[in-house]
Amino acid sequence: MIIIKRKEDLKSWIKQQKTIGKKIGFVPTMGALHDGHLSLLRLSKRDNDISVVSIFVNPKQFNNQEDLAKYPRTIEEDMEKLINANNDVLFLPDEEDIFKNTVDFDLDLEGLDQIWEGSSRPGHFKGVVSIVKILFDYVCPDQVYFGQKDLQQCVVIKRLIKKTFPHIKFHMAPIQRELNGLAMSSRNVRLSEQERSDASIIHEALMYAREYAGGRSIQAIKEHACKIINEKNNFKVDYFEIVNTENLEPVSHWSEADSLAAITAVHVDKVRLLDNEILFP
Ligand code: AMP
């Protein structure tokens, strides 16, 4: 695996590869890698000649300094996992280099950055868009891989691609889960053993929504889902909503959109867990 730390070095290396016709797949991450991240890399390896994984904990997408400070950093283990997964290039920039000679990129997200994750984390999606724009500019990928786990991020990145990088092909990869159904996340290490076990309730609530989608009222499903999650010790639902998968706007009738998803964020003590399920098609 080649490790590149400076964005200009990455750009010239990629340029050489492109002149000999190589197709580049890209998986941006913040490290603390688990099988969810590696599943994206597997898809990229399947589709491309060269796969690039970036690891960069982006300060601009954290509105809470404690969360940024506590974000797990496990670079040695990450590198071992990437080598074992036959990754081609690890892009490992530092903060100074990544933001050097860049201006804050402002994309009109048409309110998408104000709802759900955006409303509890002001500035989060603008921070995501600015780093992803820089990464796309230097990695110059043909195809990019993001996880459905962060569904709102996927919708935001699809808008960025549509407006600014129309030549890039976007892929959304399925959510990888622990055996009990808990969506894999770098933040799960901050849960106690009991909380981790209890967190299976989040997937159960989403499965309940899928089972009764179209059959019971949306209101009844939301109420039941919140109730069973909130019954667990230390668990507090931030939101559990049924939304249009395309723009994440909430719906009140099953027939309001062609594709619907149940999305949720749950506080478990100081950890915020995200999960979702596409209900149909
Ligand atoms: P992060 O390092 O948390 O920024 O995540 C990097 C990428 O991995 C994002 O596209 C995430 O959506 C994706 N990802 C995180 N967790 C999972 C998971 N459990 N299954 C699939 N993809 C995931």
Structure commentary:
With 281 residues, this protein is of the alpha/beta class. The chain has helices at residues 7-19, 35-47, 65-70, 75-84, 95-99, 117-120, 124-139, 151-164, 193-198, 200-212, 218-230, and strands spanning 2-4, 24-29, 50-55, 89-91, 143-147, 169-173, 235-244, 260-268, 271-280. The N and C termini lie far apart (39 Å). 36% of the residues are buried. The structure holds adenosine monophosphate (AMP). Adenosine monophosphate binds next to helix 2 and strand 5.
What is the average of the pLDDT values?
97
Unique ligands: adenosine monophosphate
Distance between the termini: 39 Å
Helix tally?
11
Secondary-structure map:
Elements: E1 2-4, H1 7-19, E2 24-29, H2 35-47, E3 50-55, H3 65-70, H4 75-84, E4 89-91, H5 95-99, H6 117-120, H7 124-139, E5 143-147, H8 151-164, E6 169-173, H9 193-198, H10 200-212, H11 218-230, E7 235-244, E8 260-268, E9 271-280
Parallel strand pairs: 1-4, 2-3, 2-5, 3-4, 5-6
Antiparallel strand pairs: 7-8, 8-9
Helix pairs in contact: 1-7, 7-8, 10-11
The structure holds adenosine monophosphate.
Residues 29-30, 36-37, 39-40, 146-147, 149-150, 173, 175-176, 183-186 line the site of adenosine monophosphate.
